[in-house]
Amino acid sequence: MHRLLLLLVAAFPLCRAQDVLLECPPGQSCVRKCCPEGQKIGPRACVPGGLGLDVPNGTLIVVDRPKCPMFYLEPGSDEFEIFYNGTLMYTDRDTQVVTREFCLDENDFNSTFAYICFPPNEEEVLEATLQAYSIGLCFSIPFLLATVIVYASFKRLRNLHGKCILYHTSCMLLSYIFLALLQNGHFQEEMPCIIVGKPV
């Protein structure tokens, strides 16, 4: 009987150690821990300490800190809930956060904090997208201009089909120029933007 009890006591820490993984197995419910087992998050890096995370039964702990700027949710002042599938519900913003965008860890008082990636700034993403479109349009403009020059220069190309291509390409050239200017942010006031937007 004593041997069985000793065997169970010796095996228990091994079972707990296996709950902490480096990667989540497929089909398994997992949450990310910011720092390795036996450590907790400090002001600049992981520091020794911590009692272990309180997670739902059957949920594995994966040691993996997301590589993004993060903010933390304090238990008590910020309401959040961890679901069985490993996602986090941030109640204050009514937002569900997927597993790869947050991690959990303890603070100095052994309370579980959630560290969430800042959402990407939508204005910066939109601005970068518009700049990429503008660059693509500017890349197309010389080729459209070359097509207009070729069809306008050669008399043999000025038949009905050639004139259709010439006028169509000329309109595309003008609209690409105006659209590139608009998407690059050269017209901030409303009236010039409306005037330039009409031909497009």
Short description:
The chain is an alpha+beta fold and 200 residues long. 40% of the residues lie in helices and 20% in strands.
Question: How would you characterize this protein structure?
Answer:
- The protein is of the alpha+beta class and 200 residues long.
- The chain contains four helices and eleven strands, in the order αβββββββββββααα.
- The chain has helices at 2-18, 122-153, 160-183, 190-197, and strands at residues 20-21, 30-33, 39-41, 46-48, 60-63, 70-73, 80-82, 88-90, 95-97, 102-106, 112-117.
- The strands form four sheets. The chain has a three-stranded parallel β-sheet with strand order 1-5-2. A three-stranded antiparallel β-sheet has the order 6-11-10, with no helix packed on it. A three-stranded antiparallel β-sheet has the order 7-8-9, with no helix packed on it.
- A hairpin with a 4-residue loop joins strand 3 and strand 4.
